[in-house]
Structures are given as C-alpha cells and as structure tokens.
Amino acid sequence: MDNLLKYIQSLTNFSDKSWELLQPALIKFEFRKNELLLKEGQVCNSLFYIEKGYCKSYYETEGVVKNTGFFFENEIATNIKSFGSGQKSEYNIVACEQLTTVIFDKEKLFEIAQQANEVEILGRNCIRLFATKQEEFSNLFKLYSSKERLEYLENNYPEVLQRIPLSQLASFLGVARETLSRIRKRRTQI
C-alpha cells in the first residue's frame, strides 16, 4: 500500500497516526478482467484506489455500451453521486484488465474521519479531485468537436490512447469506430 500512501500524501498532509487510523477502512482487492466493481442499480459505498490496471465506467442503452470514464493507476474510481447521496448507481464500473485496488469502505471512512481531521480532509480532496476530472470530461462534449476531443486526450491523457481499444475510445468520444478511424487517418496525413 506504499503507492496509496504516496498518493494520499500528494493530496494532503497526512501523519503516520492518520495512516494507522485509516487502515481499518482499507481493503486490498483484485478484480478479474470484466468483473464489476459497481453494478448499475447498486448503491456505491466505496472509493476504489487503482493500484494496478484500469477500469471504466459505462452504461448500456438499447444494447449499446456507452463508455463514460476510464480510471488508471493512482486514480480513484467511484460513482460520486451514488457515494455521496446513497442513491442507486446509474452506471457500471468494470475492470478492463486484471485490476488491483485498495477499497475505501465508506462507513468506516466516515467513522474514522470523525476522529481524525486529516482523514476528513483526505476524503474531501479525493472527492474534489474526482469531481474536477469528471467535469473536465463533461466539458469536452459541450465545447469540442470529436476531432478536438481526440486532440485533447492526446495532449492531456496520452495513456488513454495507448491503453484503450479503439472501439472503447470511440464510444467514450461519442463517435462511431469508423469515424474515429477516419479522424485519426486524416490527422496522420497532415
């Protein structure tokens, strides 16, 4: 869990005492490829710190999978709305390859946060960081064309393009796979 501690310390000042207090809320867990971390209709009671591998959030409508987010090493995956409100999740989170996570249990995390201010601040910072990234990707669809969205990912999130299959990337960008192939081909000819 050394990577998690480094991640936490990158977000906030975190003492050894707070790290010790946090331990009962943490569970290291491995997910197999295609195994669900969160299923649509369930309440999300966890923050998933990605130690190794990546996962995605998606929903399915009329048999078509719509990818809404990808989460890589040293990131938190969750359904922020469900986690915060206790409402059922409107989407799934699934492991896209063998996935090693550290799961923050919500109930235990909240109990510990009442005892340790640093843990409470950590929780807020994790949620703030997650919400900021979610808003950033939401703005991609409001402000940019599909070509500009691809360029944005190339410049700001190159790991997405290196690790995600073309069909999943096309779904995330909101275009058909063939359209994405044409955009990429045109860009390489310039």
Low-confidence segments: none
Q: Report the portion of residues in β strands.
A: 15-25%
What is the straight-line distance between the termini? 45 Å
Q: What do the pLDDT scores average to?
A: 91
User: Count of helices?
Assistant: 9
Please provide a brief summary of the model:
The chain is of the alpha+beta class and 190 residues long. It contains nine helices and eight strands. A hairpin with a 2-residue loop joins strand 4 (55-61) and strand 5.
Model description:
Helices cover 52% and strands 23% of the residues. 26% of the residues are buried. It is built from nine helices and eight strands. Helix 4 crosses helix 5 (117-143). Strand 4 and strand 5 form a beta hairpin. The model has no long low-confidence stretch (mean pLDDT 91). The protein has 190 residues and is of the alpha+beta class. The longest helix is centred in the last third of the chain and has 27 residues, at 117-143. Strands 1-8-3-6 form a four-stranded antiparallel beta sheet. The protein has a four-stranded antiparallel beta sheet with strand order 2-7-4-5.
List keywords for this structure.
single chain, 190 residues, alpha+beta, four-stranded antiparallel β-sheet, 9 helices, 8 strands
Write the layout of secondary structure elements.
Elements: H1 2-11, H2 16-22, E1 26-31, E2 36-38, E3 46-52, E4 55-61, E5 64-71, E6 76-77, H3 80-85, E7 92-95, E8 99-105, H4 106-115, H5 117-143, H6 146-156, H7 158-163, H8 166-173, H9 177-189
Antiparallel strand pairs: 1-8, 2-7, 3-6, 3-8, 4-5, 4-7
